[in-house]
Amino acid sequence: MKNRFKYKNILIIGMGKSGESSLELLSKFKAFCYCYDDNKEKLKTFENLHDCNLVFDLDEEIIKIMDFVILSPGISIFSEVVKLAKLYGVEVISELELGTCLTKGRIIGITGTNGKTTTCSLIHHILKKSNKPSVLCGNVGDPITQNIMPYKCNYVVEMSSFQLESLNHLKPDIAVITNITPNHLDRHLTFENYIEAKCNILKNISKHSNIILNYDDNVLRKLDLRHVECNITWVSIKEEIEGYFVKNSKVYFKQNNKTKYICNISDVKLVGEHNVLNVLIAVAVCKALKIKNSKIEEAVNSFLPLKHRLQFVKNVNGIDFVNDSKSTSPDSTITAIKSYSKKPTILILGGSDKDTNFDYLANKIVQSKSIKKVVICGQTAKKIISSLKKYKFENFVDIKDFEDAIYYCYKNACYGDTVLLSPACASFDKFTCFEERGERFIEVVKNL
Fold first, then answer.
1. Taking a C-beta distance cutoff of 8 angstroms, is the pair 54, 41 a contact?
2. Structural domain tally of the chain?
3. Quick one: which of 68, 118, 176, 196 has the fewest CB in 10 Å?
4. pLDDT per residue over 308-355, tens digit each?
């Protein structure tokens, strides 16, 4: 672990959770820190709390004296300050990369459009159950800069596209991409940019590392990996491939036409086919870490579902209420619909816009035999309605208020129905995060 930051001038942009933890860490490593945030009142709160210089206006004079610029996840690489920093030859890195520069031990990096958090949490759970030191951090839990341990351990790091887009030197020991479908196009502008950001996790991979990829994902299967010298392992829940696959709730590994049994996952408590994939990826990671099969099986089958991810909340008079607030893209909502394909379902959609196209989701809703009604609320209501009408789905209702939408579902559901909150949108039109939206759903349902 080399300290590249001692006595260096470092500008931290964005003083939220990631920015503050970056400041605390860099102060310990004797860097000269400068802090900027668009929210001037928030910035002033750091005046007496930390040994740092507050920057209220970003200009050339400030940028020119910097050695590094640290970006919090909310700051885009397309912003003017990043362009200015690059013009003056200032190295721009993310809070994520800052943390990985200063760790001891293995970096297990997991990215992808869907499944990241569940997969990370499951890997962490298996490692803990196997008595292996493990830290769960990154886009899940606390920032990695807040979790630098003085000893060697396994860092299980959820890496978002926002964190990966400014990556320069990161070399994960194990790099995982779960899947890639269009998302966050309001930030990345094009799907190609989004793919590039996700694949940055492979950018500096060493020949001693491991890459684990989802064979069932069309984008991943088309990646040009000819330059990669390290071991690449594929996983599939659809085919018996060379790599890890599932058959009759059992995990197998095939190599050179020889198949080995790994573990039984028949008692897994996670709902849906997509979670079988998450389990399979976690198994592949833990086998790369040489965890025993028996330990993996025991841990996988004891792992409990995470909140806001197809979370069963309550049965009210024969109606199941399911909280899938974490579904912030059409693709994840389609996965949720598939998971509840055997029961009549009222689907709650809508939220804040990420420049998302809802046509594919609308087509899947039309094809679904389980969706009996769609209740729409939020900023994206007009776009969703337009897509539903395009595919001639008319059984929807537009309700402005989130709580009123839940009450409407309860009044119009029948015994045996499922009310599924799976918005296909972010939550920022009415809530600070998807967790707050999910908690509000739980609160309303429990008081029905």
1. no
2. 3
3. 196
4. 999 999 999 999 999 999 999 999 999 999 999 889 999 999 999 999
